[in-house]
Amino acid sequence: MGAKSLRQKNKELEKVYAEVENELGRSASDKEVADKLGISVDELNKLLSEVNLSSMISLEEFLEQNYEIGVTTAPESREEKPEGYIEMAELREILVDAIGKLPEKEKMVVSLYYFEDLTLKEISAIMKVSESRISQLHTKAILRLRGKLARHKSILSD
């Protein structure tokens, strides 16, 4: 299977999470997402395992790729484009808020991975579940966060 179709799957999952969570106004369960996709929870888990490698991208990278925001620390660029910094700060707030609303286990994985710089292996030891399960939780969290950020992206680009 080529990377292209994986990317498409990733995008589709992202979209479904965003749609379902928009409708519900809360985090969607695996069953709710699977139903929306017309597949079983087992198939959803398989799909999440397939796309999880492509979602192992840092949130910083994600923000930089999706929002043409200069995240440099050079003072001269900061003066040239201060609005980029304002947007970045706003996005961080949105992100922190979105992370706060994640289901408990996903929130823990994201916090340990991004803020404590722990590896998935270390997180699996702390949470006492398999590394592949941690990877899945991470993938779901990223899909949810991307969905939330995508909504704000349209607001920011106005």
Produce a short descriptive summary.
InterPro entries: RNA_pol_sigma-70_dom, RNA_pol_sigma70, RNA_pol_sigma70_r3, RNA_pol_sigma70_r4, RNA_pol_sigma_r3/r4-like. By secondary structure, this protein is mainly alpha-helical.
**Overall outline:** globular
User: What is the percent of helical residues?
Assistant: over 70%
| Unreliable runs | 69-78
Number of helical segments?
9
Overall pLDDT metric: 79
How much of the polypeptide forms β-strand, as a percent range?
under 5%
Radius of gyration: 16 Å
CATH class group: Mainly Alpha
Helix and strand content put the structural class at mainly alpha
| CATH level 4 superfamily | Winged helix-like DNA-binding domain superfamily/Winged helix DNA-binding domain
Keywords: Cell projection, Cilium, Coiled coil, DNA-binding, Flagellum, Sigma factor, Transcription, Transcription regulation
Pfam families: Sigma70_r3 (PF04539), Sigma70_r4 (PF04545)
Organism: Acetivibrio straminisolvens JCM 21531
Coiled coil: 3-30
Description:
With 158 residues, the protein is mainly α. The protein has helices at 3-24, 30-37, 41-51, 59-66, 75-80, 82-100, 104-115, 120-127, 131-156. The longest helix has 26 residues, at 131-156. The termini are far apart.
Keywords:
9 helices, 158 residues, DNA-binding, mainly alpha, Arc Repressor Mutant, subunit A
Write the layout of secondary structure elements.
Blueprint: H1 3-24, H2 30-37, H3 41-51, H4 59-66, H5 75-80, H6 82-100, H7 104-115, H8 120-127, H9 131-156
Helix pairs in contact: 1-2, 1-3, 1-9, 2-3, 3-9, 6-9, 7-9, 8-9
InterPro entries: RNA_pol_sigma-70_dom, RNA_pol_sigma70, RNA_pol_sigma70_r3, RNA_pol_sigma70_r4, RNA_pol_sigma_r3/r4-like
Protein name: RNA polymerase sigma factor for flagellar operon
GO biological process, one term: DNA-templated transcription initiation
